[in-house]
Design brief:
This protein has about 220 residues and is mainly α. Helix content is about 80%, strand content about 0%.
Length: about 220
């Protein structure tokens, strides 16, 4: 297998780094999902439940990327093109699914005129998630650009989305606690839908053009 240099770092080294990042992501979002969903059910919180479901979606995305990266590590870049297309398509579907869920959750919240209830456990896990997702996403995007992987970029965008949803949940919890503003989390969550759809369409485009480096 040919070793491709990218900014002085071998491609195989970048792939291994991305592989480790995905395992870290999988471990963290599994914890997020368990704690977030449990806290959401206990507090009857729609937005916190959305956060927990987002964590499940991101765990699935991380699993897809682990498979895609493992294909390249074992068989080389030339064997990873088909895996890249499949991973990109799956990542796109997950992004669209998350966008749909955010919209439906916000619509339900407006319909019922009910916001989230304050939960200390929910606040703790979402606060801890914000810096973690920022660091993971920043590194993933850098590697995705270096190796030309739309699948990894789509996964990074899901990581960013998780961070933004965490921020939204934190803002909603604090607003609910201090102002009684039941609607703020729904409004804020809708702001990320455009980003989700845009990145989902770009990830899906890999299948149409048949390459992993098209922009």
């Amino acid at each position: 297998m040919a070793v491709i240099q990218t900014d002085g770092v071998p491609r195989t080294g970048l792939i291994r780094t991305a592989f480790i990042l995905e395992w870290i992501t999988l471990a963290w979002v599994t914890l997020e999902a368990a704690v977030g969903i449990w806290a959401a059910l206990a507090a009857h919180s729609i937005s916190l439940l959305a956060f927990g479901i987002d964590s499940v979606i991101e765990a699935l995305s991380a699993g897809v990327l682990i498979w895609r990266l493992n294909v390249e590590l074992r068989h080389g870049a030339e064997f990873s093109e088909d895996a890249e297309r499949k991973a990109s398509r799956i990542s796109a579907v997950l992004l669209f699914a998350l966008a749909a869920y955010v919209v439906l959750s916000a619509a339900w919240s407006f319909w019922t005129r009910e916001g989230q209830e304050y939960t200390t456990l929910g606040l703790a896990i979402t606060l801890a998630t914000i810096p973690m997702m920022y660091l993971l996403a920043r590194r993933k995007i850098a590697i995705a650009e270096a190796i030309g992987s739309r699948a990894l970029r789509a996964d990074a965008m899901e990581t960013i989305t998780c961070g933004w949803l965490s921020f939204v949940v934190v803002a909603g919890l604090l607003a609910q606690l201090t102002l009684g503003a039941w609607w703020i989390d729904s409004v804020a969550s809708l702001a990320i839908v455009y980003l989700l759809v845009k990145e989902g369409r770009e990830a899906w485009a890999v299948e149409a053009c048949g390459c992993s480096n098209c922009r």
